[in-house]
Amino acid sequence: MSKTPHKFSRRDLLLASAGTAVAATALNRFIPEAHAAAPMLGNSRPTHYRFKVGDFEITTIFDGALAIPKVHPIFGKNQKIEDVKAYMTENHLPTDKMTISFTPVIVNTGKEIVMFDSGYGEERRAKGAGKMAATLATAGFSPDQIDVVAITHCHPDHVSGLKEGDKTVYPNARYVAGDIEYNFWSKKEHLESTNKGMVRRAKAVHSNVVPLADKMKFIKPGTDVVTGITSVQAYGHTPGHMCYHIESAGKRFLIFADTTNHYVASLAKPDWHCAFDMDAETAVVTRKKILDMISADKIPSAGYHMPFPAVGYVEKQGSGYRWVPASYQLDL
Predict the structure, then answer these.
(1) CA-to-CA distance for 31 and 305, rounded, in angstroms?
(2) Are 312 and 301 in contact (CB under 8 A)?
(3) Under CATH, what is the fold of the domain 48-331?
(4) pLDDT of 78-100, one tens digit each?
């Protein structure tokens, strides 16, 4: 004879829970209070990630991260705040705060070690960024081993780590920067701007980049930094912002820097304006162009502000894109 399976009611579950609680209380009378063997250590992140692209070895370095107390209007400033909040919620992200991380990249070609951007340096170290100099050793490098420092653009989070006080951090390096980018930021008139943000950025350039001008090669898009590494035009975020295309043994990789500044509120929504972009409309056009290339050609890439280790792929998705973090593809 078959029996009808018992269906648990809410009352059954409450009674069972009550019984379990009574039993647990009784048992706890005879068990001493437990204590962890070690104190709480706080949040932790990896310091670097290394993989190969053809014959080149690429390492991304965690320079740190800053907490930002808002999302809109930094991202989606041309959108309604409620729409931005809804989209962040849809993607399991807070609507009233965010974290932005910073990820310089090092490429070892086998002949030269090329570093892209320098991190925040002393300027934001007390707030959680500017860790590049310290984590470089953990990643297996010393500052004197860097042969070339290539600058994607001259915002403080990319160039402030070039110097520590009056000392040049990378003493043996030669430097590469876009001519349009350098010519814009090296103008002394920006130091007297009424825009406080402009003054802060200009000070970073005049303190950390201008003193290195005699060691610097100024280039245009399409110029080889070294064999296998070529600059790519990506204007909009700044007047001369550039990406760098890497190719070795038939394998490709793109360092897209600040073409997009957030994997959800910018990359996935390329039409959304970002407060960090100096020319928002040009940045939108550039964003779509670069992301179209990455997605169509299935090129792995690194974005300076993507979630660390900041390496992944881009997929076209409707009118936007989707960031797909690398898992083990580049480890094989």
Answers:
(1) 49
(2) yes
(3) Metallo-beta-lactamase; Chain A (3.60.15)
(4) 999 999 999 999 999 999 999 99
